[in-house]
């Protein structure tokens, strides 16, 4: 009886557990993901809605995932650049085969919702060009403004498109547009003069950016590569924008096998420059026109043409300036009255043509020719009478003490012209799992320069003008140089992707060689990178990169100065050698979801061994090189970035960079001019609750101070640190018309995709940031660094229409 009862209990327990075992059946789904042409799509994401279950397709588009069955299961297939597809299964069980076709996405800004991001399997991160469309930006250069918000990148001047990457100078960054290297004006010394950069954000379709460890196909610079692709339109489109800072217009037309886009921009910084301490008549005018033509007369042939004409004029008549600086208990006032004016003109012309032959889908050869021409002049004669006063705590200005008085004069007649012609033959061949790239290039350069500039300061105890032959100049530079040279280079690299038991690997390895006939130097650069998406957890991506990178001298770097009787003469140093940087980069990504929204956390650790360095000083945006190789150094740091949909349907990110960079000059270790110990950047997008017609974009930046010293002194005199850079910009935008709401706007909505009205507040918290310093002394010969502050709080109104 007891035995019978025991078996009865066992049978009852087994029957009670049976429903749980049935409800927890394991399901396996597998198949192939392809595009509409039947080609496999690698790295596509497959996930089960509401579960922490996902997979990534391999090189052949195959995927497999396992999960516990439910009454209803929705499987989601997604890939950046393709439409998302869903498949709903009812009470699935066993092994299921699903082959999925993903159509190419239609990129309508107001409609598309990106659910997943392409994996970063190289040193290049892909950035969304659309994120810069509605971004509060005082510089007017939206793409560079977005770049400056990335981890490892810093910018301390809102009027400039220049940026530093991992301790490198402005000159160490490369910019390519459809394979053409873009050059920047050489005489510019401040953000006030700079104007528009080359990149027109209305014409951009893809943005790829590398902060180090980049491929051999890119040229000889030490820090970063910004690789831009201009768009090929498939239908007529356009846009126009007006604001208090200027305006722009863009139009794109298409026909059979033809795409042609045009962009024109006008900008004036008068409104912003009116917030500076120096008051006067500011008349900066910047205008440019660009065109991009793509024509494919047949499946085998493709022709591309890019043209650009730009003119940046900066006219300035200063009147007076008043600057207060110091501490709360020790306030100084610097007051100046001016006479004179400054007139600068920068004219640039860029043209490029390429012919590509497609030998089937896997082979292509491209012949490309491009030309860059610039004419620049910088002329000014400015006299200032100044007073330096001690206000103490600032409670009673009438009791202030005058501790310094003086006069200074600044003069310049600088002229420069440059012509660069480039001829390139390159190829791409896809053979099974390999992507082979090669290229040869010849570059002809001609640069003419005439410089004549000097400064005189008659300040109590600072610059005594009592010499027999007249006033003693504080600084004087004279130069007249002309150089013609040729550069030759080649590269070869292979990208090999393969699957193993560990996961999906991507290996890129290549070499680059260059020869410059002016100094007869040959440089050789091996470079390699490796990435892994582990099979154990496909939400991770790991990357390693290393390589040798040279900074081939370009004019300013080999202009050596010799001082004779107080006057500096600039000559060209023919024994100059390329600066060298060896990169070591290790990092990775972790992709995850919160509230069914995608996020990605990225971190990279890097070390750069620097040698053959040419030291330099920075005054605002002007870089003055020593002109010869006399230093070595290093740069090391950690970059982190959290990217994702903090608000559903929007992109936001937070980045943190920690860095240290030093160089050894004359046996002494010194911080490099770009030694910025920390940099924090935030870009946040939000909508009003319940309505996407209202949009808010917020930019915030906090960066550590940089080394600086007395004017025209050596690096050994850079004993001070500037104050941290702190800035917050915010923009509020209202969609006045949307093509999605045809019922409300009727036929009128057929002509426009979107119309946005925006109100932007630059420098929301009215922080006083410093671009450079002006040095004066009191009657006791105590020196004071008077800060040259950047722009203060200002409101901008914009109207943007897309059709």
Outline the structure in words.
The structure is a single chain. It is globular, with a radius of gyration of 30 Å. With about 800 residues, the chain is mostly beta strands. The strands form eight sheets. The protein has a 22-stranded antiparallel barrel. Strands 9-14-15-12-13 form a five-stranded mixed sheet, with no helix packed on it. Strands 1, 4, 7 and 8 form a four-stranded mixed sheet that branches. It has two domains: about 1-100, Immunoglobulin-like, CATH 2.60.40.10; about 125-800, Beta Barrel (Maltoporin, Chain A). The protein is built from five helices and 46 strands. Mean pLDDT is about 85; it is low at about 10-25, about 105-115 and about 460-465.
């Amino acid at each position: 009886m007891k035995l019978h009862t025991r078996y009865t209990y066992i049978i009852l327990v087994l029957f009670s557990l049976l429903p749980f075992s049935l409800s927890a059946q394991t399901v396996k789904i597998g198949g192939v993901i392809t595009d509409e042409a039947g080609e496999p799509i690698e790295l596509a994401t497959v996930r089960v809605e509401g579960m922490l279950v996902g997979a990534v397709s391999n090189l052949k588009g195959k995927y497999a995932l396992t999960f516990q069955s439910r009454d209803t299961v929705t499987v989601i297939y997604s890939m950046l650049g393709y439409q998302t597809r869903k498949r709903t299964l009812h009470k699935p069980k066993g092994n299921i085969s699903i082959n999925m076709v993903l159509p190419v996405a239609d990129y309508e800004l107001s409609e598309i919702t990106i659910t997943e991001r392409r994996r970063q399997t190289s040193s290049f991160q892909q950035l969304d060009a659309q994120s810069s469309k509605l971004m509060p930006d005082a510089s007017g250069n939206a793409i560079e403004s977005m770049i400056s918000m990335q981890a490892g990148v810093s910018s301390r001047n809102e009027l400039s498109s220049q940026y530093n990457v991992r301790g490198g100078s402005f000159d160490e960054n490369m910019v390519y547009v459809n394979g053409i290297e873009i050059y920047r004006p050489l005489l510019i010394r401040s953000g006030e003069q700079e104007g528009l950069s080359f990149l027109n954000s209305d014409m951009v379709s893809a943005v790829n950016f590398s902060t180090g460890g980049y491929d051999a196909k890119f040229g000889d610079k030490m820090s970063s590569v910004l690789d831009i692709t201009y768009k090929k339109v498939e239908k007529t489109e356009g846009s126009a924008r007006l604001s208090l800072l200027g305006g722009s217009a863009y139009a794109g037309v298409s026909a059979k096998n033809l795409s042609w886009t045009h962009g024109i921009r006008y900008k004036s910084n008068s409104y912003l420059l009116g917030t500076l301490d120096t008051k006067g008549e500011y008349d900066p005018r910047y205008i440019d026109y660009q065109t991009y033509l793509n024509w494919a007369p047949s499946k085998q042939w493709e022709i591309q043409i890019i043209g650009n004409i730009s003119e940046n004029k900066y006219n300035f008549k200063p009147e007076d300036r008043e600057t207060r600086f110091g501490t709360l208990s020790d306030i100084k006032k610097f007051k100046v009255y001016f006479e004179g004016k400054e007139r600068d003109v920068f004219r640039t012309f860029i043209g490029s043509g390429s012919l590509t032959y497609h030998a089937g889908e896997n082979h292509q050869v491209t012949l490309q020719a491009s030309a860059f021409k610039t004419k620049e002049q910088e002329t000014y004669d400015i006299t200032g009478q100044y007073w330096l006063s001690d206000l103490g705590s600032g409670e009673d200005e009438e009791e202030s003490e005058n501790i310094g008085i003086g006069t200074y004069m600044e003069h310049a007649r600088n002229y420069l012209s440059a012509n660069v012609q480039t001829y390139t033959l390159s190829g791409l061949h896809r053979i099974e799992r390999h992507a082979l790239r090669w290229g040869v290039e010849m570059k002809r350069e001609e640069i003419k320069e005439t410089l004549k500039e000097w400064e005189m300061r008659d300040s109590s105890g600072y610059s005594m003008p009592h010499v027999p032959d007249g006033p003693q100049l504080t600084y004087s530079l004279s130069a007249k140089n002309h150089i013609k040279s040729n550069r030759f280079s080649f590269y070869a690299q292979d990208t090999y992707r393969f699957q193993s038991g560990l996961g999906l690997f991507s290996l890129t390895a290549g070499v680059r060689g260059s020869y410059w006939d002016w100094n007869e130097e040959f440089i050789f650069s091996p470079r390699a990178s490796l990435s892994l998406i582990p099979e154990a957890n496909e939400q991770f991506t790991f990357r390693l990169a290393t390589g040798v990178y040279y900074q081939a001298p370009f004019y300013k770097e080999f202009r050596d100065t010799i001082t004779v009787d107080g006057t500096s003469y600039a000559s060209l140093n023919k024994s100059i050698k390329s600066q060298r940087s060896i990169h070591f980069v290790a990092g990775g990504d972790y992709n995850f979801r919160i509230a069914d929204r995608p996020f990605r956390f990225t971190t990279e650790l890097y070390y750069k061994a620097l040698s053959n360095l040419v030291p330099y000083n920075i005054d605002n945006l002007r870089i003055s090189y020593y002109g010869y190789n006399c230093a070595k150094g290093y740069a090391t740091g950690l970059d982190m970035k959290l990217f994702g949909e903090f608000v559903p349907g929007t992109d936001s990110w937070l980045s943190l960079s920690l860095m240290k960079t030093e160089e050894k000059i004359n046996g002494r270790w010194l911080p490099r001019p770009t030694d910025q110990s920390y940099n924090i950047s935030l870009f946040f997008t939000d909508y009003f609750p319940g309505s996407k017609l209202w949009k808010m974009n917020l930019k915030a930046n906090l960066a550590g101070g940089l080394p600086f010293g007395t004017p025209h002194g050596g690096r050994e005199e850079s004993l001070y640190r500037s104050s941290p850079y702190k800035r917050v910009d915010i923009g509020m935008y209202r969609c006045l018309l949307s093509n999605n709401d045809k019922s409300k706007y009727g036929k009128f909505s057929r002509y426009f995709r979107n119309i946005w009205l925006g109100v932007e507040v630059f420098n929301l918290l009215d922080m006083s940031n410093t671009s450079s310093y002006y040095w004066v002394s009191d009657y006791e010969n105590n020196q004071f660094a008077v800060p040259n502050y950047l722009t203060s709080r200002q409101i901008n109104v914009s109207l943007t229409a897309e059709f």
